[in-house]
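**Discrete fold encoding**
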Amino acid sequence: MNGLKKRGGLFALLLAFVLIVAACSSDSDDTTTTAAEAGGEETTTTEAMSEETTTTAAPAEETTTTAGDSMSGEGVKVGMAYDIGGRGDKSFNDSAAAGLDKAVADYGIETQELEPTAGGENREENLRLLAESGFNQIFAIGFAFADGLTSTATDYPDTSFAIIDAVVDLPNVASLVFAENEGSALVGAAAALKSTTGTIGFIGGVNIGLINKFEAGYIFGAEQINPDIEVIVQYLTEPPDMAGFNDPAKGKEAALAMFDQGADIVYHAAGGSGGGLFEAANEVSESTGSKVWAIGVDSDQYLTAGEDLQEYILTSMLKRVDVSVYATISNFLNDGNQSGVVVFDLAADGVGYSSSGGFVDDIADQLDELREQIVSGELVVPDPTAG
């Protein structure tokens, strides 16, 4: 929908590891496990999307040792198939790459990384290439791999696979999903607290259920602060066109339009297109003399932006794909094949917000209070993908 809307550990984390953000099993039965199962205290929930047991990752602050202290990955080959944009997108793919890099440093695993064509037509081909090459564990970075991974994992039952942002119910596939709506609620609250115009914006890369979760959480969090806030929403493309995740020019165009309509803070969930938002915030601020802000996504984008753009990045919604990748590799080295759904939510520090630049330091107490209300269940952030 290109348009406007108003107002709108280790899978049960079996092993402890230190959460390092770079400045950022079930078999196929009917159960799901969540990542908040810390210290052996098991929390089981059932989600309509998969009806499997989901394990949530243990909060990082409860861990004190690294899995790398006792394990070696010598002789283990881990492949990673990125989605469009690949390593270097300064967002989603780069977060996955950070987790892989940490595993290489800690365990000495052998790796190979593949990127798809601009249209992503060869996603399954890349998975099969890695499987045929004898890689022990293979990551599919993104929901768009779901069909291709289902076919590939079925044909290679002795290979361990993992997929980000999708559920593939096979005995050799680990499905790693996130509570993007919860993390987005925190940056939505930050936007409402910092806005001086009472109007904020949201740019989604593609109008799909996953990105709708970011939007829903953002609006929810903003409305907890200001029930009358206006939220302008625009998606860059409609499925099956996934180009909205890698089109900075279109991202900039959408952001400029929102700033022109009175928004003074805009949040993006648009992958590589988000670079255009940062450029727009810079351009508008410099030309008008009135500062406007951008909010990043997935990784701490203040740390990857150019120095000329950093002062316009209020915060970023952290989706810790790096942690999920690292934990999954650690679990594989420890226990071998794995399957099931693992949810990285706010309680597990699987999502959150960044404070680089110090721009949200003055509202940190309010954001942390909202976080506790969500973690305790006092507030339930809407999830448009829930059944």
User: Anything to note?
Assistant: Residues 1-34, 36-53, 60-69 have pLDDT under 50 and may be disordered.
